[in-house]
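so my prof wants the structure for this chain in the tokens format not the other one, which i didnt know existed until like an hour ago. anyway here's the sequence
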Amino acid sequence: MKIGLIDVDGHNFPNLPLMKLSAYHKKQGDQTGFYNPWDGIVEPYDIVYMSKVFSFTPDYQAPVYATEVHRGGSGYCIDLEDGKEVYHAERDKNLPSEIEHIYPDYDLYGEERAIGFLTRGCPRGCGFCHVASKEGRCSYKVADLDEFWKGQKEIVLCDPNTLACKDHMDLLQQLVDTKAKVEFNQGVDIRMVTDKNLELLRQIRLKTIHFAYDRYQDKKIVEPRLKDFKEATGYGRSKVLVYILCNYDTTLEQDLERIAYVRSLDFAPYVMIYDMAHADPIYKKLQRWCNNYYIFWAEPDFYKYQR
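here's what i got, hopefully its the right format
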């Protein structure tokens, strides 16, 4: 069969479901590749898969010439309604087990890194996050590392809350044993860092780790833990990035306070705007200032930057 794949979000980051679908169909002897409308006109595709991670990404606009079209991903089952993300379970299409646990076709993107999930779910249930409603309020193991890693020099983990999983010590040890560079590209829960798992985190060849300081009310927990991590590792802005959620339940001054604290540790703060489409323009200015490496470290005063 002729299989077409559409990464609706674009190709800024490899779409994992599409790489797994490609691997599965190649095993069946099918021809797979990114969908091309002109090829579809000449010879319609048998199946086209469209995958979208972000609900704010506009849907694919070109006509799709195919016998079957399947759409899936968070972007198709989560809507922003009245300023809140709402998960629609009836629209959620999970991959069958034999595809979910297949080794991805990294050649689809020319990808040299290993990318995947060791755990799913999160116990926090934050109102601004869809993970708990989509994957459950419990972090649980879904794979061992060798399911998506075969000796690559770099590993990218997409887990929502690795440290909340009861098996996380074993999973961290697996990462240590690879001796590969590891990037935790989602917000690792700094509240779950202990002396025990910190020792393993220090043994991992860390490329980058992302923490989240989303809730101002967690200040008395998050700030000491971030400071402890700094003192234990000595890592700086090149390795540690801290997400700062804005436009949700904080004031601009509280946002600036969190940013300043992260900066004081020589970690890199990264502003995430909730409901960006309806946010006050000040937040886009805040994001432009904070997330631009050269501007932010040259001018630490947001109000001076504005002027």
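also thought this was worth mentioning. The radius of gyration is 21 Å.
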